[in-house]
């Protein structure tokens, strides 16, 4: 069995390493349409609107998972939060989380939807995520952050905010639980888990993205350990 940590590997191979229901919860964000890379949707310049979009590297690891992925996910985890559940032909239960991105931009979706096995109701998280406009904090996410210099740096075309995972950690992950992220991308999730002292396993298949995400995570780990040293002195 693998140890806790972040791995550059295919999650289907990774999950096979773990016994049934090993993870208390899986919080996952698999690719749900055949690719930003194919559509060249991300990383292009919007010359018509004069908005210069960020030039992300093309990610060529964008296979939409099939039923065997969800079967394996449910085998290894007791609870699941699955982003983009509305795009998959899988029979999820009725619980939903809606992340309202507080967007005014008409081109992109206003919200993202996740299946959540921990309740049968619909819960909403409001957090601005619209280009340079980012939410102020977990609790005041609908208010735009004043100082753009403190904006979260984006390294991934479909990066989710660390604050979204901080909220998930606070609302859903009980003390002592461990967590699985099969499609880690930028490592926003792992940063939130590290901060909260939650044990995790993360997989990212794309080597270039893995290296960037690893560096991002390491920077936070280093900052936190310097802070710890400061507090202890
Ligand atoms: C939708 S993105 C995840 C974004 C992430 N939630 C974030 O905040 O950055 C999906 C990621 O899954 C990776 N991926 C695709 N297939 C994979 C697989 N079989 N195993 C592990 N990672 C995979 C892609 O390279 C991509 O980075």
Describe the structure.
28% of the residues lie in helices and 21% in strands. It has 233 residues and is of the alpha/beta class. It has one domain: Rossmann fold (3-Layer(aba) Sandwich), CATH 3.40.50. It has an 8-stranded mixed sheet with strand order 1-12-11-2-5-7-6-8. It has a two-stranded antiparallel sheet with strand order 3-4. A two-stranded antiparallel sheet has the order 9-10. Strand 3 and strand 4 form a beta hairpin. The radius of gyration is 18 Å and the shape is globular. About 4% of the residues have low confidence.
Give a short summary of the structure.
The protein has 233 residues and is an alpha/beta fold. It has six helices and twelve strands.
How many structural units, i.e. domains? 1
Distance between the termini: 38 Å
Query: How large is the share of residues in beta strands?
Result: 15-25%
Uncertain parts? 43-52
Annotated CATH architecture: 3-Layer(aba) Sandwich
How would you sum up the global shape?
A: globular
Q: Determine the structural class based on helices, strands and strand pairing.
A: alpha/beta
> Which ions, cofactors or small ligands are bound in this entry?
S-adenosylmethionine
Number of helices: 6
What is the CATH third-level topology name? Rossmann fold
- Sheet with the most strands, sense and barrel status: 8 strands, mixed
H/E element string?
EHEHEEHEEEEEEHEHEH
Tally the beta strands: 12
Specify Rg, calculated over alpha carbons: 18 Å
């Amino acid at each position: 069995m693998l140890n806790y940590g972040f791995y550059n590997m295919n999650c289907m191979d990774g999950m096979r390493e773990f016994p049934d229901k090993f993870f208390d919860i899986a919080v996952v964000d698999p690719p749900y349409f055949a690719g930003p890379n194919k559509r060249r949707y991300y990383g292009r310049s919007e010359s018509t609107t004069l908005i210069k979009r960020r030039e992300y590297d093309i990610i060529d690891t964008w296979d939409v998972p099939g039923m065997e992925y969800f079967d394996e996910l449910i085998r290894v985890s007791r609870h699941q939060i699955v982003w983009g559940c509305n795009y998959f032909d899988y029979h999820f239960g009725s619980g939903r989380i809606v992340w309202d991105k507080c967007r005014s931009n008409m081109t992109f979706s206003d919200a993202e939807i996740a299946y959540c096995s921990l309740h049968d109701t619909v819960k909403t998280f409001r957090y601005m995520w619209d280009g340079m406009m980012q939410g102020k904090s977990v609790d005041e996410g609908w208010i735009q952050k004043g100082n753009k210099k403190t904006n979260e740096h984006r390294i991934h075309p479909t990066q989710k905010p660390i604050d979204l995972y901080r909220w998930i950690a606070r609302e859903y992950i009980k003390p002592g639980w461990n967590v699985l992220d099969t499609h880690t991308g930028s490592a926003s999730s792992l940063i939130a888990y590290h901060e909260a002292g939650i044990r995790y396993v993360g997989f990212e298949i794309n080597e270039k993205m893995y290296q960037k995400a690893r560096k991002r995570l390491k920077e936070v780990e280093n900052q936190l350990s310097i802070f710890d040293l400061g507090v202890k002195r």
